[in-house]
Amino acid sequence: MALKDRGENAEQRPPAGLRSQLIRYRGYRTPGAQPPRVTLPAARVTLLLGWGEPLHIHGGSNRSGAVEHWSSMLAGPQSAPFLAGYQGAGYAIEVEFTPLGAHMCLGLPLHHLADAVLHPDDVMGAGWTARITERIAVAPDWHTRWAIINSTLTKQLADSPPVPPVVIEAWHALWSNHGALTTRELTQRSGRGSRRLQTLFREYIGIPPQTLSRIIRFQYALKIPSQGYQSLAELAAISGYHDQAHMNRDFRALAGRTPGQLRPLADRATLAGGTGHDSCFTDFFAGRAQLPRGYASPGTPPPRCGPAGQASPPVRPEAAGRHRPPPPPTPGPVRRTSTP
């Protein structure tokens, strides 16, 4: 009896010199239609490079919108969950950046990616995606693919200007306090006014400090060991919420689920990014009963794909159902337009 093809999954931490900008690489081969994953808000930017079957994305469990098809994409920091799944066989690599690392590598003001999805060519220049996916598609193994990603991103980062120290300090202050800092406390620590801090966050992180705080606190509540609290009310207090009702509201807004529904899933999951400050619970497979109306069921024919798995024609931000920023007005990578 032939063994069932279960595909491939591989993960790799970036080399030490890139770990302040990159969190992890994740690669997979899907042998056929797969259950969709629910991706939760996290302070990350994801670059997806795929060849073969495109990724089918639906607005999250508390959104509505048409299903979109992306062979490759850039997804910025999200403030609500979304569903994504494969309807057939294909390969993909996900590169997860910190927001500051994404700003350095992409040369893009991060507010363009907040709650948005873009095609990588809209940022990196026409043909960039095809060139790199063609290289990784013919690579003999995952180790070789990681080396291609390392080399490409190292070159991108070599030409990038440094992030202002005040932004780095504010970022680490929020992480080290598990999101439990008010904007006023953050401005006092940074020595910058509220308006200036908001401008810096918009440029380098993409979302306001208060939104980032909510996401960090939400993720902190998900990774506290279950033996570390006796009740959800105690979990709320440990995590920095005003009370359990406050925690419930944030969980529903950020995940479309209650703490009672999500905590058991997080307890069984492996945290993405290891055990450091950037570890978090990023995704899980959705059950059939959890799929929103309109999600494409397995077997739905995908759009025709051209070389290197790029959709033909590609889905562009201006044609997407969800709100997205306009594409760059000039060819090539988007250039930095603001200064610290």
Which short descriptors sum up this protein?
11 strands, 5-stranded antiparallel sheet, single chain, 6-stranded antiparallel sheet, alpha+beta, 340 residues
Explain what you see.
- The chain has 340 residues and is α+β, with helices and mostly antiparallel strands.
- The chain contains eleven helices and eleven strands.
- The strands form two sheets. The protein has a six-stranded antiparallel beta sheet with strand order 1-2-9-4-7-10. It has a five-stranded antiparallel beta sheet with strand order 6-5-8-3-11, with no helix packed on it.
- β5 (55-59) and β6 form a beta hairpin.
- α3 packs antiparallel against α4 and α8 packs across α9 (232-239).
- The termini are far apart.
Question: What's the main sheet like?
Answer: 6 strands, antiparallel
Task: Decide which structural class fits the backbone.
Answer: alpha+beta
Order of helices and strands: EEEEEEEEEHEHHHHHHHHHHE
Beta-strand content estimate: 15-25%
Number of E-type strands: 11
Question: What is the radius of gyration?
Answer: 20 Å
Query: How far do the termini sit from each other?
Result: 63 Å
Average pLDDT value?
83
Overall helicity:
25-40%
Counting DSSP H or I runs of 4 or more residues, the number of helices is 11
Low-confidence segments, given as residue ranges, are: 60-64, 294-340
Globally, the shape reads: globular
**Going across the major beta sheet, what is the strand order?**
1-2-9-4-7-10
Oligomeric state of the chains in view: single chain
